[in-house]
Specification:
The chain has 181 residues and is α+β, with helices and mostly antiparallel strands. The protein is built from 6 helices and 10 strands, in the order E-E-E-E-H-E-H-E-H-E-H-E-E-E-H-H. The radius of gyration is 17 Å and the shape is globular.
């Protein structure tokens, strides 16, 4: 599953001048690697990864597959112009933060290359995270811009807090079982 992530022939990787297929650039070294190998290197180095995307991200995929693959590769957030409705929900339920560029903004208008390091300024206290709020992002190149947090319900915020739906359910069941004893 992880090796097939981002293998869709409709995905043009701008880090590779629009080339398609499950390859990417390993930013620190500049090597062209399969996505799985690059992700493994980032994980080993303790570096979180994000995806910068265009419009209707996730449309046309086997949606649950498309959400699980990035999670297994260590993707923490996806920043897109827009999302397929179901895919966005699947990302949220698996613990990946979906963010939308503000109207008129995208990778090109903001001058983003994908080589930047990003800081996503989510509130550290989960009670301060509200569905649909604006979040500020900054890059190591000095750019700052706002995105809309696409955790669209309090339940999706709870999933994020627990690292996804499965850990949320397991903790809920564990708490319920502990209370019944």
């Amino acid at each position: 599953m992880t090796r097939g992530t981002f293998a869709n022939i409709r995905i043009a990787n701008k880090l590779l001048n629009g080339e398609v297929g499950p390859k990417t650039v390993h930013i620190p070294t500049g090597e062209t690697l399969c996505v799985f190998d690059a992700a493994s290197r980032y994980k080993t180095a303790g570096q979180d990864t994000i995806v910068l995307a265009g419009a209707e991200y996730g449309i046309g995929y086997s949606r649950d597959w498309a959400a699980k693959g990035p999670k297994l590769l260590g993707v923490k957030a996806i920043i897109a112009k827009s999302f397929d409705r179901v895919h966005r929900s699947n990302l949220a339920s698996i613990g990946i933060v979906p963010l939308c560029f503000k109207s008129g903004d995208d990778v090109e208008t903001l001058g983003l290359t994908g080589h930047e390091r990003y800081t996503i300024h989510l509130p550290s206290n989960i009670s301060e995270i509200k569905p649909g709020q604006d979040i500020t992002l900054t890059t190591d190149t000095g750019k700052s811009f706002a995105c809309t947090l696409r955790l669209d319900s309090k339940l999706e915020v709870a999933y994020y807090d627990h690292g996804g739906m499965l850990p949320y359910i397991i903790r809920s069941l564990s708490n319920k079982y502990a209370l019944n004893q």
